[in-house]
Amino acid sequence: CIYFCWQNTVLSFIHDKQSLSLVFFQAKLDSGVLLLSTHRLIWREQKNHDCCICLPLSQIIFFEEQAAGIGKSAKIVVHLHPVSSNKEPGPYQSSKYSHIKLSFKEHGQIEFYRRLTEELSQKRWEQITVSQPMQSVSGSQTRVRAVGIVGIERKLEEKRKETDKNISEAFEDLSKLMQKAKEMVDLSRLIATKIKDKQGEISEDETIRFKSYLLSMGIANPVTRETHGSGTHYHMQLAKQLAEMLQAPLEEQGGMMALTEVYCLTNRARGMELLSPEDLVNACKMFEALKLPMRLRIFDSGVMVVQLQSHSEDEMIASALESVTEKGCLSSEEYAKLVGISVLLAKERLLLAEKFGHLCRDDSVECLRFFPNLFLTKTESIQ
Description:
Layout: E1 2-5, E2 13-24, E3 27-37, E4 40-45, E5 51-56, E6 60-66, E7 74-80, E8 99-104, H1 109-122, H2 137-197, H3 204-217, H4 225-228, H5 232-252, E9 256-258, H6 259-270, H7 277-284, E10 294-298, E11 304-308, H8 313-327, E12 330-331, H9 332-339, H10 343-355, E13 359-363, E14 368-372, H11 374-377
Antiparallel strand pairs: 1-5, 2-3, 2-8, 3-4, 4-5, 6-7, 7-8, 9-11, 10-11, 12-14, 13-14
Helix pairs in contact: 2-3, 5-7, 8-10, 9-10
């Protein structure tokens, strides 16, 4: 430790604590301020600010806490390395003790202990700062501040470069994905052309399989508001694209699909260009005006479906009546499983057949079951 005249230091002070006593080689120094910098531990007398005692952090081996007791304040015991032979003269020439005690009268030892731990772990006194010889105190302060600002700017620049690198990597992955998507779209167009023109040796099984591939790949050029404006024109173009896309799925589903199923299927095919429910309904309402091969139908229950124009009510009623007559009676779930459609559509078909008097119902606690209407088929009285 050295004794020196107090001046404004060029070091960064991390923490200070008022009303602190220093037990230094059995000599007690009361009422001082303890300052912690990046390089030193400094004790300054509270009344006389011109004189203080400092201890380089490099001299500390380890330190420990002593809890407060009755009439005793909390302390931090700092254990030190042996002094070197070329030690400069200090306030005390020698001592048989190799430690000092920092006594905290007004608490604060926990926070100071934490800050001291951080500084000793970082060992910033070992970092060499290249600077010009100091000509004056004010000049040295200016240069140190400049070095500090440069350091902050350097860290910000490094962080910016790292951010730019991460963004570049992300866009590189996105570019690869877009390139792959372009290849898939080109492939889908090629397959579509082959199916349309029947070029090459393409069997019926291959045609069906290619169509399923196209459906899973999605729509190559979806109709959007950005490309086709808004309002009626947009809904008309969207209706044409929906009719083209839904033709095959409707035929596979027996000529009818619930609007919710159409919504899911359409958005899956459109990828990121998602379609709102309102736009879907408005586009489906355009089917009849544009004379497209499908229609939007609303059942009495409010259920909305898209069905092929060739899919007539008589065919649906006849199919439902045939299935119920064959099984004796059917619930909506059983009929849906039998013909391979959703339960919602199965119930609507059965209700439609009931509406025209071909079926009658038995609504029990178990479920709603439909029976053939024997009043229409039996001329004899039912016993």
